[in-house]
Amino acid sequence: PGPHDTPAPPKLRGPPEFVRTLYMRVVRGIASRARLRTLSRVRGQPPCRASSSAAHDSIFGRILRGEAPADVIDDDGDLFSFPDHTPASTHPCLVIPKHFIRDASVLRPDEAELVERMERKARQLVKAAVGRDFVERELALGFHWPPFYSVSWLHMHAIYPRSAMVRRWKYLPVSFKPPAYVLKRLRSPPSAAGGLLRRAVR
After folding, report:
1. I want to staple 175 with a disulfide (CB 3.0 to 4.6 A). Which of 80, 106, 148, 162 is the partner?
2. Helix (H, G, I), strand (E, B) or coil at 191
């Protein structure tokens, strides 16, 4: 180029792939929650829960109604378990209640027992799949916290072995909460400020 030519602007690099993916998950989660609020106003139901899967058209609702395929690992009448379609490790499992609850952040204190049952079920299923080689420290259990999920339906991830996890950025402490965190939150009396914040978030 000559001395008076304008230099070409530097090429701008986009964000890393995992940042773009995380951004899209957040956007989808926010959009899904907004849609649930709209549906609840139309149908007269609370936005964060329903007594069955009949009125919910998420992929989990369709699976429970037999409208979408899934390899059933276990169905005890209250909890339904099936493999994660985007596995994070060798033995992936999702455990969901058969009635709709939006996510772990809207659980009530009287639903702590549900979290405990989901945790026991997930551990039991992974132990059965792994067999005698099961190592407790290799088991990761948790819930994605809003807005870091793409399906608005309470679901616990069971991931084994932890040491072979892929896409670890999806399971950072800010977005992935273990059952102990959820149970402590449910059993701790909320402060006045915390109660107002939760009502505002919902």
Report:
1. 148
2. coil
pLDDT > 70? residue 94: yes
In sequence order, the 6+-apart residues with CB closer than 8 A to the CB of 115 are 104, 107, 179, 182, 183, 186
Instruction: Read off the pTM.
Output: 0.72
Annotated catalytic residue 155: yes
Helix (H, G, I), strand (E, B) or coil at 141: strand
Q: Which of 56, 144, 155, 157 is catalytic?
A: 155
Q: What gap in Å lies between CA 186 and CA 123, rounded to an integer? A: 21
- Lowest mean pLDDT segment, chosen from 1-10, 150-159, 168-177: 1-10
Task: Give the tens place of pLDDT for each residue, 124-165.
Answer: 999 999 999 999 999 999 999 999 998 999 999 999 999 999
Query: Are residues 94 and 82 in contact, defined by beta-carbon separation less than 8 angstroms?
Result: yes
